[in-house]
Specification:
255 residues; 7-stranded antiparallel β-sheet; single chain; 2 domains; alpha+beta
């Protein structure tokens, strides 16, 4: 009877440990991000703006400002975060499981960004907006990362769409939020906009007058040295549990 009980305990501990270790490693396999606009910066009481955050519902999140002049278009930003089942940096499932650090410090597309720039009223004082990116699939559950995008409104005086174009700039590329994964703290850093699949990256993105332009928004996950030493990962906890269980089993067999 005692041997059956001990065998049941050992099998249960091994099963629990396998499940725990699997969960710890599987975080590298599925990555999902969605964005939410907030924190509009305006210095004019007559400015108009709207926010519609639907990125987490299969759509995209939009920040719109101003009233379009006759014959023109409105101003807006759209952000559409990446979906699930992507391999960061092209890592295979086997590589991601055997080397959980494979994707660290590797640039990847975190979402699609578009900027529509028109001639508008009630928009001259709009100076910026915050984008919160929720990252799921790495760490212990979703983590939120805030970034500020500033807007430079260029006077429409030359008649050249590019010269009169407006510019959005990523002012705070490094997130202040960290998440715990793989027995360490990590954070999200935006690397910039790219129209060439990440080959060239820039923090400034120009949208010519009366046009809609799109680019990929790229990021990377990096170690966060600003955080304290983390608590043990679930795999470490399992080893401690197994050691305590082994000591209890040896004591039981001696009785």
């Amino acid at each position: 009877m005692k041997q059956k009980l001990l065998l049941t305990v050992v099998c249960g501990m091994v099963f629990l440990g396998c499940q725990t270790c699997f969960i710890s490693q599987a975080y590298a396999l599925r990555v999902r991000a969605f964005g939410e606009w907030s924190g509009v910066v305006s210095n004019n009481m007559y400015d108009l703006h709207w926010i519609n955050n639907n990125d987490d519902e299969g759509g995209s999140s939009r920040f719109q400002w101003g009233t379009a002049a006759a014959g023109s278009i409105d101003n807006h930003f759209d952000f559409d975060g990446i979906g699930s089942d992507i391999q960061i940096g092209g890592a295979s499932e086997t590589e991601s499981e055997s080397r959980p650090d494979f994707w660290i410090d590797v640039p990847f597309l975190i979402g699609d960004f578009s900027y529509q720039n028109g001639m508008t009223y009630h928009s001259i004082g709009i100076e910026g907006v915050d984008l919160t990116i929720w990252l799921d699939g790495v760490g212990r559950g979703p983590s939120s990362h805030g970034f500020h995008f500033s807007i430079r409104n260029t006077p429409n005086i030359t008649g050249d769409p590019v010269e009169d174009g407006d510019i959005v700039t990523i002012d705070s590329p490094l997130s202040e939020t960290a998440f715990l994964w793989n027995n360490g703290f990590y954070t999200l850093e935006l690397l910039g906009f790219s129209k060439g699949a990440g080959e060239t990256l820039t923090f400034e993105f120009l949208s010519p007058e009366d046009s809609l332009v799109s680019a990929g928004l790229y990021a990377r996950i990096i170690p966060d040295d600003r955080q304290p030493i983390p608590q043990p990962e679930p795999g470490t906890f399992f080893l401690l549990l197994l050691g305590l269980g082994g000591a209890w089993i040896m004591r039981s067999l001696k009785k």
